[in-house]
Specification:
690 residues; alpha/beta; Glutaredoxin; Rossmann fold; 4 domains; eight-stranded mixed β-sheet; 22 helices
């Protein structure tokens, strides 16, 4: 309500602008003395004391106005005085928590774990100061504007103070958030590059180090690229005592940079004994952006070059196979991604065909054979050479395709498999690529076995759906004695389109088909050929006793040949693995391993990047990693690295329906519904008022 004429002039509030300026200037002066001047010299005392004196004088003016004013205006003067005294209380708490009273802050681990009295003071004084100054400013501005008119209304002044208090309390939450952030340091990677998250493969690689390895980061200490990669290497540093990280400024340590031939900043140097590998990123973010997206892959590649011996993988050619290089004649999608993936795992990739002597034998250094979509028959002797290689414990990846119509029957018969070239189709579980009826051949599956060749995709099948465009099917041949495990299956209601009309007929029964098979067989080690002819078996000695002269001669002969036999024995220990044994394979892994796919497009460049989510690795790529991991031994070929390279996202037919109908119908209906609900009540209330 309005104050009377005799009480409308509360002199404290009328002179409030000058008093408020004195109060705020005093607080600013205290800030200058404490934060800018600082220290323990006389200057800090003079500046801070002058500011405190100004704030105290202003507060005393408001207190005097409160005590000298009577009637209704006394409420306004009391409110201003109490708010000013609250500000002085905040300054007092600041003084109690400062180094002038509590001494210098000694930060220890015990203090970091708990909450000290100093920390409580540091949070309390700014909250009290803000919650009193803002309402005081609101009160003063409201009173001064009303006093120039008919009078001051106490209700409006209190409403202004309330608005200032609400604003102050909202701002005070920032102090609580800041205090909690300091006590609980949570690191969450929200960056685009994801460089701060080493993959499980990189982590296991560092955890399994058997020799000291050092990562030298040649960057200036204040560098935006260094901020991106440092958390990545710090996490790896915590995994093993044999892995260490050090940031080196090239300008401060030129001799070290010259020793390792580091010409510019932005270089990561990995050291392991005499071996060294460089990863060049660049010191500026504009240049380093592209490299940061595949930092984890480059780290794995460099580490493998230092700790692994290079094994050789042969890709069979010369029979119309798909290759990594594009040709004008072959319009089928290539397999360059497969070759790059093998090379990234420190494997040497070579071609093997009739020209390279496949008809004679598979090279002794072959760690694995890869045969992708043969469209022609093998030449004489080549099938026997591949079979002999597998019987020695070889490893092989074979992918077939219904369009090629040239299944290697001799090899499939040896493996105990039958291959059907009839394409599989599905009404719903397919990917619309061409937007035609033929898309039903692009079947998708999330059905895997528990075999080691599909470890990751089987455990997280919903995250890793696999696309097989135009796939045939596999079955175990009757009478086969091989250990055959079907590792990838189609989803239910899949049918073999035998008539080619892309429509399920009455005779085309739907069922679950086998899309990939893993074949394994234990290989018996051959008995050692070299034997000591002079050595007489114990059984013969027992049956045929000899005279003493012969026995002495035999003993002399044995003693004379003992050093020679020992040398033979030592030489036998260092003898290499039998001819044809895959290079790098462990002696205990005497096992033939073969994986056969009924579709070759599953690993082609066009479809291997298929994925349903922007944050996930594609199922086809993960399937390739799992298969190669099983074929090449788990410890030699690690899993997939993290990468932020852009890959096209593909949706299933059902998901396309959801997006289409959602954007065309659902979203507009939701907006209309919200508008109708919010406007309906207002219209009725307006008509009622009229």
């Amino acid at each position: 309500m309005a104050l009377g004429q005799e009480n409308r002039r509360p002199w404290g509030c009328l002179r409030g602008p000058q008093v408020l300026i004195l109060y705020i200037v005093g607080l600013i002066t205290i800030y200058v003395g404490e934060r800018i001047v600082g220290g323990h010299d006389i200057t800090r005392w003079i500046v801070s004391s002058a500011g405190a004196a100004g704030a105290i004088i202003a507060s005393l003016v408001w207190v005097a106005a409160w005590l000298l004013t009577k009637s209704e205006a006394r409420r306004i003067e009391r409110l201003a005085a109490l708010l000013s005294l609250g500000g002085l209380l905040g300054l007092t708490i600041y003084l109690l928590g400062s180094d002038l009273v509590m001494g210098p802050a000694l930060v220890t681990k015990a203090q970091q774990a708990g909450v000290s009295l100093r920390q409580v003071f540091h949070v309390a004084w700014p909250i009290i100061l803000v919650c009193t100054i803002l309402p005081l400013i609101f009160v003063q501005v409201s009173t001064s504007s009303m006093a120039k008119g008919r009078g001051v209304e106490a209700g409006r002044v209190r409403a202004s103070a309330h608005a200032g208090a609400v604003t102050a309390l909202f701002l005070s939450t920032l102090f609580f958030v800041n205090a909690l952030a300091n006590k609980k340091d949570v690191h969450k990677d929200l960056s685009y590059f994801k460089t701060t998250s080493p993959s499980e493969a990189s982590q296991s690689m560092v955890q399994g180090l058997d020799a000291d390895t050092q990562a030298l980061l040649f960057f200036p200490h204040t560098n935006e690229v260094l901020e991106e990669i440092l958390p990545y290497f710090e996490e790896l540093d915590q995994l093993s005592s044999r892995f260490s990280v050090e940031v080196i400024d090239k300008a401060l340590e030129p001799d070290l940079a010259k020793q390792h031939r580091i010409s510019s900043d932005g270089t990561i140097l990995l050291l392991r004994g005499e071996s060294k590998q460089k990863i060049t990123l660049g010191a500026k973010m504009e240049r380093a952006k592209r490299s940061l997206r595949k930092l984890d892959a480059e780290f794995q590649k460099s580490m493998l070059k230092m700790i692994r011996n290079r094994a050789t993988v042969y890709m069979i050619t010369g029979h119309g196979e798909r290759g990594p290089d594009k040709t004008d004649v072959d319009v089928r999608p290539g397999v360059l991604v497969v070759k790059k993936y093998l090379m990234a795992k420190n494997l040497t990739v070579k071609h093997l065909g009739p020209v390279e002597g496949l008809g004679n034998a598979v090279p002794d250094d072959a760690a694995m054979l890869i045969w992708i979509d043969p469209s022609g028959s093998l030449f004489p002797g080549e099938g026997d050479a591949i079979q002999a290689y597998l019987e020695r414990g070889g490893r092989m990846l074979l992918t077939l395709d219904p369009d090629s119509k040239a299944a290697p029957n001799q090899l499939l018969e040896y493996l105990g498999l039958d291959y059907s070239t009839v394409k599989l189709a599905h009404d719903r579980a397919y990917i619309p690529i061409e937007r035609s009826k033929a898309d039903r051949y692009n079947i998708v599956t999330t059905s895997f076995s528990n075999h080691a060749a599909v470890t990751t995709v089987s455990r997280s099948s919903r995250r890793f759906p696999v696309l097989l465009p135009g796939s045939g099917s596999l079955e175990k041949a009757p009478g086969s004695k091989k250990k055959v495990t079907f590792i990838v299956r189609s989803v239910p209601n899949t049918w073999a389109d035998s008539d080619g009309d892309i429509k399920r007929g009455s005779k085309e029964r739907s069922k679950v088909f086998h899309l990939a098979a893993a074949i394994s067989q234990k290989i018996k080690k051959p008995e050692p050929v070299e034997q000591d002819k002079n050595k007489v078996p114990e059984s013969k000695e027992d049956k045929k006793p000899q005279d003493k002269s012969k026995s002495s001669k035999a003993s002399d002969s044995k003693s004379a040949k003992k050093p020679k036999d020992k040398a033979k024995k030592d030489k036998k220990k260092d003898k290499p693995a039998p001819k044809g044994t895959p290079k790098g394979a462990k002696e205990k892994d005497d096992e033939m391993r073969v994986v056969v796919f009924a579709d070759s497009d599953v690993f082609s460049d066009k479809y291997i990047g298929f994925r349903l989510s922007v944050n996930e690795i594609g199922g086809n790529m993960q399937l390739l990693a799992d298969v190669l991991q099983w074929l090449g031994d788990e410890e030699r070929i690690p899993g997939l690295p993290t990468s932020e390279e852009d890959i096209k996202i593909v949706h299933t037919r059902d998901e396309d329906k959801i997006w289409f109908y959602g954007t065309v119908f659902a979203v507009p209906l939701i907006i209309l519904g919200i508008g109708f609900a919010t406007r309906w009540g207002r219209g009725r209330s307006r008509r009622a008022v009229r």
